[in-house]
Amino acid sequence: xxxxxxxxxxxxxxxxxxxxxxxxxxxxxxxxxxxxxxxxxxxxxxxxxxxxxxxxxxxxxxxxxxxxxxxxxxxxxxxxxxxxxxxxxxxxxxxxxxxxxxxxxxxxxxxxxxxxxxxxxxxxxxxxxxxxxxxxxxxxxxxxxxxxxxxxxxxxxxxxxxxxxxxxxxxxxxxxxxxxxxxxxxxxxxxxxxxxxxxxxxxxxxxxxxxxxxxxxxxxxxxxxxxxxxxxxxxxxxxxxxxx
Length: 244
Prior knowledge:
Elements: H1 5-16, H2 20-25, H3 34-49, E1 55-58, E2 69-71, E3 81-89, E4 97-100, E5 102-103, H4 106-112, E6 116-117, E7 120-121, E8 124-125, E9 129-132, E10 137-141, E11 143-144, E12 150-155, H5 169-173, H6 175-190, H7 201-224
Parallel strand pairs: 5-9, 8-11
Antiparallel strand pairs: 1-12, 2-10, 3-4, 3-12, 6-7, 9-10
């Protein structure tokens, strides 16, 4: 059954035998751990599953003529992984042409395109390469000879489940995995984390359940991206030898 924020809190409360109020608001001794449970569960699921739902396409960024540095847009969220970066050229009276840029190390750009006067590059042209300088900044090589639009395709972290965001893709589509991951964190909290070595049964039991569920969900994630057997969206099948 799909979960909302309230039903997720309620389910964790039932499994931990900690009231929903204490989970969310805490008590006189501890702050509420629900944000930590959600951060752990969602972070782990997004990292391990590589879901299409976290992919975005941004075409709002335009590079500046003579400046190799480009600031990425964060309108849809901070781009964590750049899947592809395309330069969009717009010839007169012709369709837009997409030119894929190749990722290289910054040292390559610095050595191949070293000339610069002040903030302006002296060697300009149509960029061919890019290097990621920081979370939201790229370097292009060569520096652009005009303000080309960019098409950035990458992954973000969607807004987390919360009181103001009552439903997410994870809570709607993989609620059992979300609960299992949440209970791993909650079990560690209840055992003060370090003492799990003395009494590991609860956390380990949920870890085992999580791994079993993750194994099947990883198959679905591959099918969503046509990464399944034979680059299809079909369930992997055991090969059957031909009849004699």
